[in-house]
Amino acid sequence: MADLTISTEHAGDEVVVAVGGDLDYDSHTRLEAAIDAALHSAVGGSPGGLVLDLAAVTYCDSCGLRVLLGAHRRATEVGATFALRGAHGQPARALRLTGLDQVFG
């Protein structure tokens, strides 16, 4: 089990949340909190976009997938775009098998 790491940076009008390690039941609440903070931290209101960088995520279970869906929903609710980038290995397979790769584009 790899501990979850999270870092947030502002890039123009986007907020990029880089995630590493295992996104699972034990760690999903930390990412939910980071996403909420990122959506509320934009100067002057909501960000233009929320990007989740999953390049360093090694594992993603159903709780992790639920967090990704929730992030998509919350970004849409505040009028921000949403994108995933860098998913590979097991997380990419989980997205593909569930059809979520099509939802997130």
UniProtKB/TrEMBL annotation:
Domain of life: Bacteria
MF annotations from Gene Ontology: anti-sigma factor antagonist activity
Residue ranges annotated for the STAS domain, each copy included: 4-105
Family that this chain belongs to: Belongs to the anti-sigma-factor antagonist family.
Protein name, per record: Anti-sigma factor antagonist
Organism: Actinomycetospora cinnamomea
